[in-house]
Amino acid sequence: MNNALIFISFSIFTSLVSFLLDRQKTILGFKKGFKMFKNIVIPFLNILILVSLLLFIVPPQMIVKYLGAGSGAIGFAIAAVVGSITLIPGFISYPIASGLLKQGASYSTVAVFMTTLMMVGVVTLPLEIKYFGKRVAILRNLLNLIAAIIIGILIGIIL
Amino acid sequence: MTKKHWENFKPYIWLASFVIFSVGSFWFGFDPGKTIYQSFTKSFIEMITFIPFLFIIVGLFDVWFPKEKIEKHIGRDSGIKGILMVVILAMLQAGPLYGAFPVAYILYKKGASIKNIFIYLGAFSTLKIPMLGIEIGYLGLKFTLVRTLVALPLFIAIGYFMEWYLRDKKFKINEV
What we know:
The complex is a heterodimer. By secondary structure, chain A is an all-alpha fold.
């Protein structure tokens, strides 16, 4: 609920400022935003259905066991490997991450899963090699994997 | 049902099946179905209370800070200003990481430094505004802030490292 308040107040604030500066532009912005929302809403609902199903099928104890605070390095490693290999768009992975947290996964595992998803791309490596060459593409992914692991560990310590 | 009708209906097939499944579950007292429905409504409320507002913000950003204009000013700027420009440009983007490679090529063509190209890729992967919005909505402001503040110095460091590592290795980005 807190989050909704942040978004509502911030969007009202930006709309007001924008409206005072330029009416036409503001309306154009609303239209653009609505179009993006329209494109995303059905896939989003499908994902919510899928997540609800999965969270029912996969018992919370199992998530706690493999991805919880007690799972230690193994849970962390599972999250890092899955995150590096798979290619999941953000609007799908965030509801999953939030579900995992609620079911008992630890912050550091979820953080390393999310950051490897964002920064490391094993599936897209062939494409990346075409742009940057083999050495640079592999090096970039390796460095990003290290960065993601550091981020995961630090978030685990701080939160 | 004709083929055209089917094509129109296709995106809604999951939704329709789910509605039927839920109604059926309540009708026949199928408890697992009820539980799944309740967990769905919870996540639906979670989503609908912030996603529409997020897109108002994103839409306004899009008209006030057009990417194309910023792209024009980017290139040989060095130092803090150059870093700041590529980070801002990256924040205004959307989409998966492989969408950033063509932009990296454009930056390279315009004479951006190796360091700034890799900082762009780092910022693209972790700081896009629409994604930050979704992250705040789902994982909270604190999580997002901590993750961002830890990630930022790390990928700036990666940029410096890449520039140092590739300093005399004839680095180039190919057009694909």
